[in-house]
Design goal:
The protein is α+β, with helices and mostly antiparallel strands and 412 residues long. The chain has nine helices and 19 strands. The strands form five sheets. Strands 9, 12, 15, 16, 17, 18 and 19 form a seven-stranded mixed β-sheet that branches. The protein has a four-stranded antiparallel β-sheet with strand order 1-8-6-3, with no helix packed on it. Strands 5-4-2-7 form a four-stranded antiparallel β-sheet, with no helix packed on it. β10 and β11 form a beta hairpin. α1 packs parallel to α2 and α6 crosses α9. The two termini are 47 Å apart. About 6% of the residues have low confidence.
Length: 412
């Protein structure tokens, strides 16, 4: 019995993925859930886990290959299968076992000429493997360099900045090199554009040039939002942010307006069954949008815990595949930077994104009298192919009502 290892879809609109490196070699025994390879998403490096227990074999994709989503790139074969027996139970001569051990060869990958693995079988396998490696494309320069312990982010930055990791001294655990150990290079002096920034630029350009955007703006009174946050923070040890509250509000509003919780794909409007809110997170080299799945069914404290977890791991470059998949709507909050209002670009293939400005005291009319109130500006950006003005305005109205009068959400 065998299980296919495929190139996974990292986003709804993705059709290809890049294999960065194999974490397990051909013939290695792997355990379900164990990382076996690294692939590149639009924003980060993600480790992909083994879908089953067994022996990794039939690897067809090399490091650096760009592979269509869904294509099988390896097999994991049950170690108890007759064709791939457990190495410990294989019938092999002592000399064959010694040679295999010296060269790091898993005996399970060798098909004997007879019923027993002989010295000649191991030497033939070794010769074939060596020839295959020799005739392949020139390997990455890093393959001939000594292996230096470093975090994934540090490795990526080193490659982008042309820095030799072997020349650095690591300050991370066990002397590992972390991102902070790399020398900074001014962008204007470096010809290399960081991968995350380049991909972000390409995606935003695609969205801006292909999706007809329109915007709806509304100023809301944040008094009740502030009171809600204070109330929740008194009842829990978790640190609740305005972003947490707004994720919940947006999720509830999307349940009431399912025609906004959609995506545009190849000329069709796709209704999304789940409400998964992406949160735009600023990183050193660009922007990434990890996802809070099923946000409409989560409590505020659950949302806060999930938000803190994914933001922390995003900034450390340790997001998993599931963290980036399935987003149906994006929230971008720049209020903490003192921004009053801004227009965000839709994150394809989603149909809408909410841009949130800071909460600031302004003079407004209340009961025909001037009063100073904490106000906040909401700006909704829509893909006009999937959402029209009337539906967008109705959705914005619900958002405003839930912010100004949370009521039923207060205990959520």
């Amino acid at each position: 019995m065998s299980t296919n290892v495929i190139m996974p879809a990292l986003e709804m609109a993705q059709d290809k993925g890049k294999l960065l490196r194999w974490l397990k070699s051909e013939g290695a025994t792997v355990t379900k859930g164990e990382p076996i390879m690294e692939i590149e998403t639009d924003k980060v490096t993600v480790e992909i886990e083994a879908p089953a227990d067994g022996i990794l074999t039939n690897i067809t994709a090399r490091e650096g290959d760009v592979v269509p989503v869904g294509q099988t790139i390896a097999l994991i074969v049950d170690a108890t299968d007759s064709g791939f027996p457990n190495s410990g139970s294989l019938d092999a001569t002592p000399v064959a076992r010694r040679i295999a051990q010296e060269h790091g060869i898993d005996l399970a990958t060798i098909k004997p000429g007879g019923g027993r693995i002989e010295k000649a079988d191991v030497l033939a396998y070794l010769a074939t493997t060596t020839e295959r490696r020799r005739t392949t494309d020139t390997p990455d320069a890093s393959a001939t360099m000594p292996r230096v312990p470093a975090s994934p982010k540090a490795k990526r930055l080193a490659q982008e900045r042309g820095v030799d990791l072997a020349t650095l001294r690591g300050t991370g655990p066990h002397g590992a090199i972390i991102a902070a150990d790399l020398p900074t290079t001014p962008i204007l002096q470096s010809p290399a554009v960081p991968t995350i920034w380049r991909v972000m630029a390409e995606r935003m350009t695609q969205s801006w040039t292909s999706a007809p955007h329109f915007y709806l703006v509304r100023e809301v009174n944040a008094s009740r939002l502030i009171a809600w946050r204070e109330s929740v923070n008194k009842r829990t040890q978790a640190k609740i942010t305005f972003t947490d509250l707004l994720v919940k509000i947006v999720a509830v509003a999307l349940r009431q307006h399912p025609r906004v919780n959609v995506s545009w794909n190849e000329g069709a409007i796709i209704q999304q069954p789940d409400v998964n809110i992406g949160i735009a997170v600023a990183m050193e080299d660009g922007l990434i949008v990890p996802v809070v799945h099923h946000a409409d069914a989560m409590s505020i404290t659950q949302i806060a815990a999930r938000r803190q977890d994914i933001v922390t791991r995003a900034q450390a470059g340790k997001l998993k595949l599931d963290d980036l998949q399935g987003g149906t709507f994006t929230l971008s909050n720049l209020g903490m930077y003192g921004v009053d209002a801004f227009n965000a670009i839709v994150n394809p293939p989603q149909a809408a994104i909410l841009a949130i400005g800071r909460i600031a005291e302004r003079v407004v009319a209340i009961n025909h009298q001037p009063a100073v109130q904490p106000m906040m500006t909401l700006t909704l950006s829509f893909d006009h192919r999937a959402v029209d003005g009337a539906r967008g305005a109705s959705f914005l109205g619900t958002l405003a009502e839930l912010i100004e009068e949370p009521l039923g959400l207060l205990e959520a």
